[in-house]
Each structure stands twice: as structure tokens, then as C-alpha cells.
Amino acid sequence: MTDNHHEDVAGLLLAAGGGRRLGGRPKALLEHRGRLLVEHAVGVLRAAGCGRIHVVLGARADEVRKRAELSGCVLVDNPDWAEGMGSSLRAGLASLTGTGARAALVSLVDQPGIGPAAVARVLGAYEDEKSLVSAAYDGTRGHPVVFGATHWPGIAAAATGDRGARDYLKENAGRIRLVECADVAEPYDIDTEADLRHLE
Predict the structure, then answer these.
(1) Mean local confidence (pLDDT), 164-180
(2) pLDDT for the residue numbered 164
């Protein structure tokens, strides 16, 4: 096995949310360190070693396409984004089907406290298309997660509403490899006005 088997793993960034609790400001368009949050998140995936990156857009997708510098990424529109994260996960996995990717590393646009160090650590635990890997923060499962391609159909079938892959991961808890990341990352979400203090 070569070191660059990371090429088997595509980055899948879920960036479709409408920021309901942020007065309807799409999270992708929030700013952090002089860049849009979606650009920052793509940069993290790139720095961690993801070659292929698919970005799922939803809320104000046209505006995100216009304003964000996302060259080299595959942009996936999720017209059903308002149904919740599950629909974005399904759209993203569907977009990876047939690309040759053997796994998807799923990250969320609203977690800028999770940087390349944590993503690279989770990526490094990938083995093959049967892999299920999750970052953990003091033992609690979080993002990013790696889903080997053999799991995609089951995850897509179970991903409804805002549940994403939670139910599938619960059922397969014994098969998940947890990678502790609390020493290199903070897993906060940018969900509410109070959370905006995390942005720089």
C-alpha cells in the first residue's frame, strides 16, 4: 500500500445549511479569517490531503457559487437542503458514486475549530472501502467521519431529516474506529448568534 492511498478518499463538505438560527444567513457565506467559511473548510480538506473535494450547496447556492472561490471542487446542488443534513449527505454520496472514490471523508462547513491536523489524523485511519472512521472529542463521536463506499447505500437509506448518518453509525457502533482529536481541534458548531464569537 502506498502513502497516497488518500487519493481513494474524497472530501465531502456539507455546506447547504440555511442558518435558520442565524437569521437565515447561510453558513457557507459567513466569514472567518478573511475568507468565506466554505472556502476555509475546503482549504482545511486540501491541507489535510483530500485530492477530490465535493461541496454540497443548498441555501442561496447561486450566491455561494458567485462569491466563493471553489475552483477545483465539484459543486453539488441539493434542492432539498431545507429537509436537513440527511438530504445533503445523500446528495453528496450520490455525486461520488462512479467517481472511483472508495471512501468519503465528511466534514461540516460550520466547524472551523476542526483544522487540517484532525482531518489528516482521521484520514490516516482509512484502510479500504469497508472503513468506518470517526473523530472523537474526549471519547464522544464527532466530525469528520470517513465512510467506506460499501456503507454508502445503507447510510443513504437511513439519512432522513437532520439525522445524517447518526442512526447508521449507532447500528454499526462496534465497527467504527474512533480517532481521538481533542488535543488538536475543537468541535464547536456555528449555529447561533452567540457562536459567531468563534469566527475571526
Answers:
(1) 94
(2) 85
Burial bucket for residue 120 (CB in 10 Å: 0-12, 13-18, 19+): middle
User: Could you report the per-residue pLDDT of 85-135, keeping only the tens digit for each?
Assistant: 999 999 999 999 999 999 999 999 999 999 999 999 999 999 999 999 999
Nearest alpha-carbon partner for 139 in 181, 97, 99: 181
Q: Are 110 and 27 in contact (CB under 8 A)?
A: yes
pLDDT of 96 reads 97
In angstroms, the CA 82 to CA 103 distance is 26
Residue from 119, 122, 99, 120 nearest 111 by CA: 119
Which pTM value belongs to this model?
Answer: 0.96
Site of grid cell 452567540: 194
Cell numbers linked to 44: 482545511
Determine the Cα–Cα distance for residues 26 and 41; give it in Å rounded to an integer.
14
Cα dihedral 146, 150, 154, 160 in deg (nearest 10): 40
Question: In a 3-state reduction of DSSP, which class is residue 190?
Answer: coil
DSSP designation for 29: G
Let me know how many helices (H) and strands (E) the chain has, helices first.
Answer: 6, 9
Q: Which three cell numbers stand for residue 95?
A: 455525486
